[in-house]
Design a protein that fits this description.
The chain is mainly beta. It contains three helices and 13 strands; from the N terminus they run ααββββββαβββββββ.
Length: about 220
């Protein structure tokens, strides 16, 4: 299960490449784009963000295969993702992934030309070139009205075939994202709390080796 969650976190953070939309593909729903653009514009006004999230995995029959919770910090191009057993730090130039059980740190360099998905892009413009999208019916959850947008990847070789994004209509923020894999598993990423008013210190985005004696460093830069 640990490997499954590690794979999902990494895919959300840095492994999903953005592809240009092929000619001749279907048109996007302008109403869906309006909602997503509003979410993106609002998120870009935040100087820093701290959000608590949960990650749930279900099989095609709806059986819960496991749930993990974590925290993500974002500031400019910097981010930090913390989940049980793993932490990912990005200081804007390097990405450091720490495996707590192995006491191992892997460092890679940020490639600005790769157009990789980062936590910031998940909340902003990840949808622009990689998906077709349309509005579904609004849903009610936890006393909130959610605008649901369905995204279909343009690249059919992706391991998933559908993504549902739920947006808080009043707050104009993403509250959950559900990814449907071709293999049958469903991954649900939910934001339980978001703090956009307090400033996150830059030290949050740097791995402090002094706190982990004997840590093995694998430098791939």
């Amino acid at each position: 299960m640990k490997k499954v969650f590690t794979s999902v976190v990494l895919s959300l953070v840095c492994l999903v490449t953005v592809n240009a939309q092929p000619k001749g593909m279907g048109k996007n729903d302008p109403d869906a784009k309006k909602v997503l653009d509003a979410v993106s514009a609002k998120f870009k006004t935040f100087k820093s963000v701290q959000a608590a999230f949960s990650l749930k995995i279900e099989n095609s029959a709806g059986k819960n295969l496991g749930t993990k919770s974590g925290t993500v910090y974002m500031k400019g191009t910097k981010y930090r993702v913390s989940v049980t057993g793993q932490e990912i730090f990005c200081d804007g130039g390097n990405i450091s992934t720490f495996d707590k059980s192995a006491n191992e740190l892997t460092i890679t360099k940020v490639d600005p030309s790769a157009n990789s998905i980062t936590p910031q892009k998940i909340f902003t413009n990840f949808y622009d070139k990689d998906f077709l999208y349309k509005m579904n019916d609004e849903v009610k959850a936890g006393g909130k009205t959610l605008q649901q947008i369905e995204l279909t990847p343009l690249d059919k070789s992706k391991p998933f075939f559908k993504v549902l994004v739920n947006v808080d209509k009043k707050a104009q923020t993403i509250v959950s994202t559900k990814v449907y894999e071709k293999a049958g598993n469903i991954y649900t990423y939910s934001v339980s709390k978001m703090n956009t008013s307090s400033l996150v210190n830059d030290t949050q985005f740097v791995f402090d080796a002094k706190k982990f004696p004997g840590v093995e460093v694998v430098d791939l830069r």
